[in-house]
Amino acid sequence: MDGEWQETFRNRMRGFEARRAPKPGEAAVSIKVRVTSGCFHREHSPRAYELIDRGLARLSGSDGSFAFEEHESGPEILVYLALTTAGLSLAKSIIDLIAAIIKARSEGIKKGDSPSDPVELIVRRVHNAQEFREETVLRVGHKDAVDEAKVERELKDALRKLLKDEPSTRTPRK
């Protein structure tokens, strides 16, 4: 992976953490909905972003627990996970937003947005000053049904693996 891009990512995560330092038992992660080819941003996907904006309007990020970033390759959510003895906790509202973004992509394409390449749900984090970790959770085509329970299950599974100390062996699922 490109070292310059990794440094940009590290700086983005540091900036997020500077807005509100992680509380004990929290970890900052990036959850990205990225196109496999082409772009997924406001200019080419205005109908999808209308739906995404509605989903964002329902959330309150004033406590600094998450941030929404727009990129040409797709939206990214920077969020704190609560790490507990029972595992990890990701707010239901964030899971709902992720599912809404994936659905918005499909709905936008039905209404004329382009291009129509599949999206991947990806989680990533800076493990330490030198190491970058990324897990591809799943790949969704614009005609595929979005099962919110599956998105939540796969996302939590990938996040657990991402937060462990061993390297990933996960392959994308459809």
Number of strands: 6
Multimerization state: single chain
Spell out the helices and strands N to C: HEHEEEHEEH
Given helix and strand content, the structural type is: alpha+beta
- On the 0 to 100 scale, the average pLDDT is 87
Could you say how many structural domains there are in total?
1
Q: What is the approximate shape?
A: globular
Poorly predicted parts: 166-174
Structure annotation, total helices:
4
From the alpha-carbon coordinates, what is the Rg to the nearest angstrom?
A: 15 Å
Kindly describe this structure.
The protein has 174 residues and is an alpha+beta fold. It has one domain. Helix content is 37%, strand content 25%. The chain is built from four helices and six strands; from the N terminus they run H-E-H-E-E-E-H-E-E-H. The chain has helices at 3-19, 46-57, 92-110, 148-163; strands at 26-35, 66-69, 76-84, 87-89, 119-126, 132-140. Strands 1, 2, 3, 4, 5 and 6 form a six-stranded antiparallel beta sheet that branches. Strand 3 and strand 4 form a beta hairpin. Helix 2 packs antiparallel against helix 3 (92-110). The two termini are 23 Å apart.
